[in-house]
Design goal:
Blueprint (H helix, E strand, L loop, with lengths): L2 E7 L5 E12 L2 E13 L5 E5 L4 E4 L3 E5 L9 E5 L2 E4 L34 H9 L1
Antiparallel strand pairs: 1-2, 1-6, 2-3, 3-4, 3-5, 7-8
């Protein structure tokens, strides 16, 4: 089963690219299942994603990206149990523990000044466009 991203129309008519896995391929037609956010949260209050039960049929024209992998981690989703995933950022500082020198509260002149820059993940973007 290969992973892909698929153009999908949201409830408000906007289009976005969502992760999915190919279940079956036949004559250029793909049967897929979307990896969608659920109402569930893990013990760290992170959103849980699951493959939908429903299978959809699409053509090659709907595919925005082919991932040469069947591992969700390559899409940025880490498996936490059977068919449950969380968004995973390999650059995350969640496991970072500052040294004693960094805990003193002083700031170095060499630090980047980009801390004020706004970032928006895909979930926040989808929430904004659907409201």
């Amino acid at each position: 089963m290969s992973l892909i991203k698929v153009w999908t129309e949201t409830d408000d008519g906007a289009t976005t690219s969502l992760p999915a896995k190919i279940i079956e391929t036949k004559n250029g037609i793909y049967s897929i299942k979307y990896l969608s956010v659920t109402d569930k949260r893990d013990q760290h209050n992170r959103k849980i994603y699951m493959y939908e039960d429903e299978t959809y049929t699409i053509t090659d024209e709907s595919v925005t990206e082919y991932l040469d992998s069947d591992m969700e981690i390559d899409f940025g989703f880490q498996s936490i149990s059977e068919n449950e995933f969380i968004k995973y950022d390999s650059d995350s500082d969640d496991d970072y523990t500052p040294s004693d020198d960094e805990n003193d509260g002083s700031s170095s002149d060499d630090e980047d000044e980009d801390d004020d820059e706004e970032t928006c993940d895909e979930d926040d973007y989808l929430s904004e466009i659907s409201s």
